[in-house]
Amino acid sequence: MKRNTRVIFLIALLVAIGLGWRWLTNSLGDKMYETLSARYPVDSFTLDDVKLSVLPLGATAQAHAEFEDLDFSVSFVKVLGDEDKVVDNLYEARSRKHYEDLFSERMEVFGDLVESYYLEMIVIGMGSLEEDSGLYPAALHVLLASDIRDTDRFVEAVEDIATAFEKTPVEGVDAYHFISFPGSVPESDLPSIGLQAAWLTNPTPTPIPTPTPRPTVTGTSAPGTTTKPTTKATTTASGPTKPEARPAFAYEITLLTDRFDTNTDRIRNGIRTVTYSTKDLQKLAESFHLDNTSKNLLNDAKARQTAVVTSSGTQRSTAKAAPTK
Question: What interhelical angle do 292-299 and 278-287 show, nearest 10?
């Protein structure tokens, strides 16, 4: 009898928790909906996938603005000791759609020069929002094609694309960031911009210092005896250290539109290298929404950047990348 009572009690408790969870979810969803309707009175909204969250304490949801036909995220944040907040990224979603519509046709002009691109909104609070347009400024990130394998081709591609946008500027874009396809430029090309392949080595950790032996304390011997200080050196056994492998790298340069300088020498002098760990390459593939073929090239990036200089002085790659276009 007692066992049946416990089972009934447990079932009732689970039902109460489930009902309470649903009530709280619906309640916070209603608060988010009411806030959006008051904040943007010219539009109507629907909320989906409302979920309670622990960090931050409150709830999150996916919202859709019917008039603007925009999907965006919204969250209810419970602030202890202060007024609760409802946060949304409608302005950011609106800005992204605006720029994506502008660039969808413009980027097609460059054909095989570009592997992929993505837009990043520059959101520094509401202070960066343009009052007239209701848009955030943007930065365009461009990943160049994998068959651009030396500095000259990189400079040429950047100059061609940047010059086109300099002649027909896109209002609201503050920066253009260009990246060569990681691993496509061989290490032997680095001296052309004054760099050395050795500089690409991953930094080694700072060695742990060996503890200094304590000095011998005198005066504890028997009367009439002296204690000689120990002069034997302390040795630490260590095996041969394996040289740190150089990671995959790429060329990169950022051109700011407030001083848009597309001069060839300016571009060449502004080139820098950026190294990529395996995790970095995964993030890059996600940011640029690369297909499986391009992801496979990224996996072989370190092998493809290694180059051999023949006796005639010409350069060849040990593993040649196939174009992804």
Answer: 160
